Amino acid sequence: MFGRRITLFKLFGFAVHIDASWIIVAMLVAWSLAVGFFPAQFPGLTGREYWFMAIIGAIGLFASIVVHELSHSLVARRYGLQMKGITLFIFGGVAEMENEPQNARTELMMAAAGPAASIVIGFLFYLAYAAGRDAWSTFTVGIVAYLAWMNWILAAFNLIPAFPLDGGRILRAALWHWKGDLMRATRIAAAFGSGFGLLLIMLAVFTLFSGNFITAMWWFLIGMFVRGASQASYQQVVLKRTLEGESVRRFMKTDPITVPRSTSVRELVDE
Ligand SMILES: [Zn+2]
Question: CB within 8 A of 136, min separation 6: which ones?
Fold first, then answer.
């Protein structure tokens, strides 16, 4: 899944890596903040100031994603799951699991931890924004407002019930708990993921016709990613379950209808 990556630091025992693709994204984020978002939303500053705001904003976004993934990892560890570490890549972050959760409750708690953290961080930044709106400089207020908004977007996007996004994992946990069948739950949640990916790709096409090439490209890439990831994770679960501890009995009929050798086909059909 990842290309070349750099290990940054360790946090609570989890190694935090960045994929090479993230560096390009971080630069794109900083650039679009410096020339687009900040000048449009918070006018009256110099180009240099906007660039400083953008760099701090991008670092804040980076830290927010790390906290989101860290929450997943801490809850997972609390439930006894082995975690490999956190990797930030082109579309955000991933808390890499050594193994899948063993029950629906663990899956639910683990999946909900990330968006919950993002909502709380967003709320804290919002409180700071509300408190400092009239007292602080435009520079500070702009960054704080951006981070409040970004953390809520992060939570909202991740809560879309498209497996393997967090919302899709929550959906899978609910179905798993309800029906007691992990494979079926995964199949349904992955179908939602696949459908959502397709929706984004269609959105990309519409956006392209409206002339916004860069936005279209982003929708397309994210759509392809969600679609591919949902299908890959489903296959992974199927493969694991098939190979792991399931007896042959499960795949065979245990009570086949038997017919004595002497019975003719005509007798069989008639009776
Ligand atoms: Zn998450």
Answer: 144
Q: Both tokens of residue 231?
A: 């299908």
Coil vs helix vs strand at 113:
helix
CA 107 to ligand 1 center in whole angstroms? 12
pLDDT in tens, 106-136: 899 999 999 999 999 999 999 999 998 888 8
Residues 151 and 107 in one domain: yes
Proportion of the chain above pLDDT 70, given as a percent:
86
Chain-centroid distance, C-alpha 87: 12
Q: How far is the CA of 150 from the centre of ligand 1 (A)?
A: 14
Residue 15 DSSP SS3: strand
CA of 208 from ligand 1 middle (Å) equals 29
Scan for tokens 């790390």, then name that residue: 66
State the DSSP string of 123-155.
HHHHHHHHHHTTTS-HHHHHHHHHHHHHHHHHH
User: For residue 171, what are the domain limits?
Assistant: 160-247
Q: Is residue 257 part of a domain?
A: no
DSSP class of residue 97 equals E
Does some domain include residue 238?
A: yes
- Give the Å distance between the CA of 114 and the centre of ligand 1: 5
The mean pLDDT of the chain is 85
